[in-house]
Amino acid sequence: MSEWISVAEIFGENVFNDAVMQERLPKKTYKELKKTIEEGKELQAATADVIAHEMKEWAIEKGATHYSHWFQPLTGATAEKHDSFISAPKSDGKILMEFSGKELIKGEPDASSFPSGGLRSTFEARGYTAWDCTSPAFVKKSPDGKRSILYIPTAFCSYTGEALDQKTPLLRSMEAINKQSIRLLRLFGNTTSQKVTPSVGVEQEYFLVDREKYLKRKDLVFTGRTLFGANPPKGQELDDHYFGAIRERIAAFMTDVNEELWKMGVSAKTQHNEVAPGQHELAPIYAQCNVAVDHNQLIMETLKKVAYRHNLQCLLHEKPFEGVNGSGKHNNWSLVTDDGINILDPGKTPHDNIQFLLVLTCILRAVDLHADLLRESASDVGNDHRLGANEAPPAIISAYLGEQLEDVLAQLIDTGEAAHSLKGGKLHTGVSTLPDFAKDATDRNRTSPFAFTGNKFEFRMVGSRDSVAAPNVVLNTIVAESFSDACDVLEKAEDFDLAVHDLIKEYASKHQRIVFNGNGYSDEWVKEAERRGLPNIKTMVESVECLTYDNTVEMFEKFDVFSRAELESRAEIKYEAYSKAINIEARSMIDIASKHIIPAVIQYVTSLANSINQVKQASAVAYTGVQEELLVQSADLLKDTKEALRALETVVAEVPETEGKEQAFFFMQKVVPAMEALRKPVDELEMIVNKNMWPMPSYGDLLFEV
Ligand code: ADP
Ligand code: MG
Question: Which residues form the GS beta-grasp domain (predicted)?
């Protein structure tokens, strides 16, 4: 894009946002909608009709022909079905452009093929989508800008009201954390804030590779990651890519990505090169939780779409290349009131500090009590390659607080006296005011999965490809539970100050084990965590079972976030997703090894044999030892490859038929090791075989020639 653009002008130009609504909706309608958005009140049918009409008119001015209820089924991706605005032709053969309130509020996609984990049998397969009016509608334009589709963010439920998507539980969890946070704030004398909303900022990592090379890698095409591939002579050891100058081709791509995102109201803010060659990051400015989740989906989609236009391929997989850093996303999370107070901000006065300390210790308690759930929320087939692999956080959940704050907690726990004494009606926390946790003061510990960074927590386990809905559902709910438990105690307390103090101390002492400020990548931490009794759940399939533990179900049911049936269905879906993904990987490996790699190696081996024979024919004294050595080496590896291939084929044929936990465990325990065994000789061969004969681009080609 060569012409000059005004970011301020284009930002949000494709969004039916507050400014547009204020301008276009009748005052009364606007007010009613705001009430719905702010207080979660139900929308009147007549009001919905007015909104739908204006939305349609606005969208048509932007070139819209269709509308779509946009939703997030449990596939991890987004789903959409387009309906045009046209009415049935009249007797004169003409049509009208129509869109009713009913169509805006509720949709009925025939979505029976989405995973429901047994929640829906096919005879009652129809689910419905319901408008999430707290996330604004927008239009997505065709590349020439002439046509567009109106997108309406929705939640997706079954007819009996069960959640079939990511958004429904997210909205429910936001309600839970709102209620409990307000309860807590009221106890501290805050009477003005009406609502507390989680704020979320998601940093997204991704790789870019040349599209033509990508297309020659069937493993990338089929599975999103390389199933074979020897390490290039140069990796990321020089750290010369990290925050390095952004190359022109990439910069041009980023420019287009930003522009598209800005138009859709996504506040893309930072971009830089990441640690690995070919790896980059994009982060927007944080937004209300559900909007941030929607925007992250738009970011992933836009990255892929724009890459395509630039003849690039965007890889969102957590581990596209073995031996090279993988990708994740950081989920920055805080709680903010409608009047702008971030309750994860320590504040300036001792009074604020005490509330902050309670909030903080409640969060530590929540994370300690439900470490397994938090871990599960970041589990994904691809993420199994990252977590615990000394590049991403370990699979063990712990919280990093930074030295200052850890010291405060330690004082609270140790110096019980100071912590208990009430002086001059004021509470002593051991430190009269907490130090100002300037952002830079909180030392950045990159190895911690859950780090306090000044006024927010940063959950760093999430996989790059995954929706951030699940981690936020868990964070919102587990913290709501601890707030609720704290409020139960404090609301009954006779001496509030003393009770708060005791509670902070109790939570801090009981859950101190979850705090770890050291190097999360070290082996000592693994041992230390075990000693502390912290769970170390290494794989996705092992993490899933906590979804249906009694204490999990109890908590989610208590806060109306998930029913037992919904949790069971989610566990089923995860097992299935795992099995399907590994099955595709295994079959792709078999295909590539037998049709491409083995034939190429045979060709190479034959060329060596021919060379030996020809050289010998030409000269009785010429040395052929090099060819002979290579011939023996590659022929041996060829044999190993063929054997490993046969072993993988055998194990794939033995996979239990019925989908579910048993099958997923079989894939993890039997198929994955067989895949690794096949990869090994092939990667060794790649280092030997003539590059011109190797059937696909190498890591070096993919990572350094973009
Ligand atoms: P980094 O972690 O890479 O240094 P930042 O800390 O500046 O980057 O921001 C990372 C993300 O956290 C951004 O999306 C930012 O908008 C978001 N963020 C900043 N403050 C908050 C907050 N209070 N709550 C939630 N997210 C926040
Ligand atoms: Mg960060």
Answer: 65-161
